[in-house]
Amino acid sequence: MPHVLVLNASYEPLGVVPMRRALVLVLNKKAVCLEESGVFMHSATCAVPAPSVVRLTRFVRVPFRGPVPLTRRALFARDGGRCVYCGGVATSVDHVVPRSRGGKHSWDNVVAACRRCNHVKADRHLAEIGWRMRHQPAPPSGLAWRIIGTGHRDPRWMPYLQPYGAEHALARIDGISA
Ligand SMILES: [Zn+2]
C-alpha cells in the first residue's frame, strides 16, 4: 500500500500516512489533495484518484518536537550511504565510542560503516587504531528528516520537502536501499 505525505495547512511536512487514511481525510474535507499518485482507488460505485501529497485544511498546532529519531534509514541518509572510515558502501551501523566502553546510541556517536571497517575496528577507540572519520557525526535538523526516516519515498514529495532540509538529504539518499 503506497503512503501519502501529509502537510500542515502551513505546508510544513507533518508525516506519512497509509493511502486509506489520507483518502478518508480528503473525503471528509479535512485535507485537500495537492498531488495525485496516478493510480485510482476503486470502490463498489466509483473510482477516486489516489493522493500522493495532501494538505490539511486547518492548521494543526504541533507540540514541540524533540530530536530527529535515530533510525537506520535516517542515519544512512545522513552519511550518504557511505562508510565514514573508508568511504566504501555502508552496510552496518557503528558506534564510534563502542557501547562496551560507554558509547551512547546517539546521533553524535553513531555512524554508517562498511562491514569490514566495523569488524576491524571492533571495540576500539579511533585513537587506538589511528583512524579518522570523513566527517564528524552530528544530529540532522529539519522536518524533512522525519519523513526520510520513515523509509517511505515518492519523487512527488520532493518539492514539498526541499524547503525543510531535504535538498542534501535526498540527494545523498539516492541509491541507498538500506
Ligand atoms: Zn569502511
From TrEMBL:
UniProt keyword Lipid biosynthesis present: no
A Pfam family per the record: HNH_5
Source organism, top-level taxon: Bacteria
Keyword terms: Endonuclease, Hydrolase, Nuclease
Bilayer-spanning residue ranges: none
Record InterPro entries: HNH_5, HNH_nuc, NA-targeting_endonuclease
Molecular functions per Gene Ontology: endonuclease activity
Annotated source species: Wenjunlia tyrosinilytica
Name the record gives this protein: HNH endonuclease
Database matches in Gene3D superfamilies: 1.10.30.50
Location of the HNH nuclease domain: 70-119
